[in-house]
Amino acid sequence: MSALSFLNPAFLGALSLIAIPILIHLMRRKRIRVIPWAAWEFLLQSRRKNRRRLRIEQLILLIVRILIVCLVVLAFARPLLQTMGLPIVSEDARVHAMIVLDNSFSMGYKNGNLSDFDKGKKVAEDILGRALKQGDSVQIVLLSNHPVALIQEPTYSLGKARQELQKATLSDYGTDYAAGALFCAKLLKPVKTPVREVYWITDNQKVGYPEEGNSRLQDAWKELAGDARVTWIDTASPDRENLSVGTPVFSRELITPQAPVRIEAMIHNYTPTARNGMLVDLYVDGHAAGSTRVDVPAWGKTQATFMYLFAKPGVHTGSVRLESVDHLAKDNIAWFSAKVRNKLKVLVADPVPTQDPAHDEAFYLVTALSPTGASSGTATSILVTVHPGSKLAGLNLRNYDAVVVTGMTGFTTQDRLALQDFVSNGGGVFLFPGPHTNPGQVNSELGGANNLLPALLGSRHVYSESNALTLNAASINQPALNSFRNNQDIDLTTPQFTQVFGLKPSAGNSVNVDCLFSNGEPALVERRYGQGKILLSAFPAGISGGTLPFKPAYLPIIQQLVAYLAAGPTSQRNLPLGSTLLSRFDVQDAGKPIRVMNPEGNVELINSVLGADGTIATYTHTGYAGIYTFGVAGKPISDAFALNLPSDESDLRGLKNSQVAAELGSSQTQFAHSSEDIMTVVRRNRRGTELWRMMLFIALPLLFLEAFLAQRFGRR
Asked: Running DSSP on this structure, what letter comes out for residue 498?
């Protein structure tokens, strides 16, 4: 809704001047005198023919002259198109301005000498230097999905505000306009100044709007626009195009020096043209380790793949880099961290061993973990110890990385406490039912107050070969098995399951159903317990459960899952930006200062804490993408993590102002572009849109038109 008002209404009285062209028009009408004349009839006939045309011409001249007078008079009265509900701000009124500057990493797009962030910063400096005066107050907010207040409390020192603004830098975070609006509305609430303005400086990025729950943004924006005049200033360069590299992933959980691992990264093309022959490089521990070329379709993606053999065990870091001339270079590199193990120690508990290996529940599992004569060399990477019986209380489980129990039965309280201690301190436990498993007994032995089971074990179901169950590959929801979801080389639908147990997953966020059977029932259920993980299978480990041990999929499935469980609490080394980092240390290092280096090269000392979960160092200042290294002060680096940029922020497509208004659900938001003069924007924001220039521009050609028509019509 808009209304028209006038800054100089006294000039409206001059509208009476429109009487002048009317008088001229009337005065030019002459009285007709009748003069007898023989040729009169001929003149009368000619006059009748032209009378209608002459009247129309005179009327046109009259209208043009009235328009000229009206436009000139209205221009002096300075008409103002004003948004309803926003009163005019007088020149001497005190103003509180909140400057919201988008510093998400997409604002680093640079087309020419200035980035979009530089342009936004210049607009903010102009507001401080030209739009605000002595006595006005200001707050400054940096906008991203982690908004922060550069100046939280209103300050009247515009010089101090300029100094703080000059320190502002781009972040590595993405865009979330809803989070920013909520944050700003909360900061603005306590401000008592009646006239409040918000200058929202951003690149209009489409990904800043939530796909679902749009009411969250609209509600936040309604609250913000209800408390202040909002001017949305677009800084985006035209036709922004971009390419980016996604977070690298490994083909398997267990990485050893004996076998090469596949490293994959997705290359995204956010341009309308295909990019062929793009060079992608792999770097490991700071050295070039390989390269490949990929073709990426328009608005599409392609996977870049490298095979790499780590030379020695330990923590290694690296990156995948796109060697491309790009206006946004920050997302042309993605980082990774990997822990390479020399040996993986696994204890396999076989509660009911048999003389015939072929019918022993542990036989096929042990063979899969350490296949004799395997050409890949994995036979030496997993060291398996078989323990007959279910008594675990007398064993030092902390000597192992993972414990696998086949055919669960006969657990004592001491066994449960031993498993509880092992998994609480970062160990991984894999539980399989078997022919001798009593579901009620297992639920009683491993359940209770300190329940270790990810799910209650239900009754046994036996199927014939004709209606046997299979695994549903599309239901896989587990990092270690993701590579099987669309793997054409390993078909998970061929293994048949003829004996399975029902699983009823426990409630809680720590429980996850990793995979389903073809009938929709859970096949694998996982839970986190302390610093470790427990995985419960619905099918036996041996051939009593079906044909899985005979299939090619059995070996990689077992190895991947056991390696995943054995990886410990710090297995997730490739994390999203802003994640909390947890690094484990030896007990003797408890209380010692831990040296943390962030991607910017800054070093910070933190303390490790000895608790029930072991010696842990926690680090939360993770706002930069790149590699974070940990180590006891004075000792070599012992751990590393890789944090990467939010992938969706690399899509630089934006919205038009009309689309932004629809997303915000607000008709009171004023829109501008960073290329406009800031004082014009401010005057329009405070006083509305003045129309006098437009009226004078229209009156000028009308003057020339009037002179031309008067001369042309006068000849007649």
From this structure: S
Band (pLDDT 50/70/90 cuts) for residue 92 is low
Q: At what angle are helices 40-77 and 692-714 packed, to 10 degrees?
A: 160
In whole angstroms, how far apart are CA 535 and each of 306, 416, 515, 562? 31, 15, 11, 9
Please tell me which residue, 362 or 614, carries the higher pLDDT value. Answer: 362
Q: pTM of this prediction?
A: 0.73
Q: Grade residue 481 by pLDDT with cuts at 50, 70 and 90.
A: confident
Distance CA 61, CA 21 (A): 9
The per-residue pLDDT for range 639-679, each reduced to its tens digit, is 999 999 999 999 999 999 888 988 888 777 888 998 888 88
Question: What does residue 90 show for φ and ψ, rounded to 5 degrees?
Answer: -70, 160
Geometric angle at alpha carbon 636, from 631 and 638, rounded to 5°: 50
Dig out the tokens for 355 from the structure: 């003389």
Amino acid letter for position 371: P
Answer whether 492's CB lies under 8 Å from 470's CB: yes
Q: Alpha-carbon distance 301 to 267, whole Å?
A: 5
Q: Do residues 278 and 295 lie in contact, with contact meaning Cβ atoms separated by under 8 Å? A: yes
Which tokens is 650 given?
């690399």
CA 196 to chain centre: 31
What the chain holds in terms of domains, given with CATH numbers, is 2-85+692-714 (no CATH), 95-240+654-687 (3.40.50.410), 242-341 (2.60.40.10), 344-566 (3.40.50.880), 575-643 (2.60.40)
Using DSSP bridges, classify how beta strands 344-350 and 382-388 pair: parallel, antiparallel or unpaired: parallel
Q: Using DSSP bridges, classify how beta strands 626-632 and 639-644 pair: parallel, antiparallel or unpaired.
A: antiparallel
What pLDDT was estimated at residue 585?
84
